[in-house]
Amino acid sequence: MTTLSKWKVLFPNEHSYTPLVGILGLGGSYASYLKDSPSILEQMSEKGIIASKFCGFHIGSAPLNQPGSMVLGGYEKNRVLGDVGMFDLGTSDTIPTAGPRASHLDVVPDFETGPSPFNESKGISLWHHLNDDPPLDPSRRGININPSVPYMYLPKGICEGAAQYLALTWNEGLALYRWDIGNESFRIISSSAYMAFVLADKNFKNITIK
């Protein structure tokens, strides 16, 4: 755990802001695994405060009025719905991380019911629209699953493709994509549209997160 007394995030336009929240790492970092330094969960488990060195985190659902949940030493079984993926922890040749690691297979703007907000009759594969040279092996599209990061970092070409369907514009000063305020964005957010992320877990099972 690291304590910072002064911390500012600087944008390309030289404006900055001070974040109001920090990050508390429950699991061991990449460096701590190398140094055999126990994580918070490992220390709590060794002292008998929690049953195991694992934790369950669920972000909740605003439409269902369901609050988020975090359980140290276990998980809430009733919150595990649909397919369950198993992901390796540790390092790889592409991502040096101690967090969950998965293979990223596709990104698909799609919708559930009603008229399509994208002027398409079905989902659009953004990976298939990439002009990789040479083609990128799907097994090497490694990603780091990190819920503490406030942004989504996607390969070049994916963001540009998604922006065409999601009424996004690139802001040079912030170096971020922003929503356009207008009829186009309202049509999307008032529909059943979603962005699907297709991942492969350690057993090569495809899991779609909407």
Description:
The chain is of the alpha+beta class and 210 residues long. The chain is built from four helices and eleven strands; from the N terminus they run ββααβββββαββαββ. A hairpin with a 4-residue loop joins β5 (88-91) and β6 (96-111). 7% of the residues are buried. The model is unreliable at 92-96 (pLDDT under 50).
Helix/strand/pairing class, anyone? alpha+beta
Instruction: Provide mean pLDDT, rounded.
Output: 75
What general outline do the C-alpha atoms trace? globular
In percent terms, what proportion of residues is strand? 25-35%
The description of the largest β-sheet is: 5 strands, antiparallel
Structure summary:
The chain has 210 residues and is an alpha+beta fold. Helices cover 13% and strands 26% of the residues. The protein has helices at residues 30-34, 40-46, 158-165, 183-189, and strands at residues 9-10, 16-17, 55-58, 69-72, 88-91, 96-111, 142-144, 168-171, 176-179, 193-200, 206-209.
